[in-house]
Amino acid sequence: MKYILASALCMLVSTACCGSKTGSPRQTGAGLAPGENKQAEVAVNKDGKTLVVFFSHAGDNYSVGNIKVGNTKIVADYISELTGADQFEIVTHKYDGMAYNPLCDLAKEEQQKGELPPFEGSVDVSKYETIFIGGPVWWGTYPQVMFTFFSKYDLNGKTIIPFTTHEGSGLGSCVKDVKKAYPNATVTGEFSIYGHDVREGKERVEKWLKKIGF
Q1: Which of 18, 164, 178, 202 is buried most deeply by CB count within 10 Å?
Q2: Is the pTM of this model over 0.85?
Q3: At what angle do helices 144-152 and 174-181 cross, to 10 degrees?
């Protein structure tokens, strides 16, 4: 009976956040709950301007249902409120109005094909020294539209702080993928939080920001 319950739980977690990429590291701290990462002490240059780059999906989301404001946007807004950072939201209308399961199927197809969906607007990243990069975890990493951003903007030489919202995938391979996109950047201070916790999670975000020097 215990084996059956454990198997059922594993299946449930694997469907959260549009599944998980086979072999993707959980990147969780020892003794912590799945999806919670132990934060390292890091030094961030607060004198340079700071930017929050993020993609957030409103509409039908796992665990929280149909939401008007995406989970990641809430975290991004906390960061800006607490640090004074500017924001650039990666906006695409490709996923508008999609139910959760069809969206997962599309996200998986995009990842398998290496698609780079277009997004709206632009930002002058040369003005910033520290850049937070956030998004949900879809199939073990950031949504493909964020990789479109990575392909268009050179953040090498900057300090990059990844963060994710999820329902069991933690950071997935997001940190590794950011390091691959920007091998000459300082990637540090990563943070993950469950999507269903973000609306009551401002204190946790504030604690994380203080720990990394903000």
Answers
A1: 164
A2: no
A3: 20
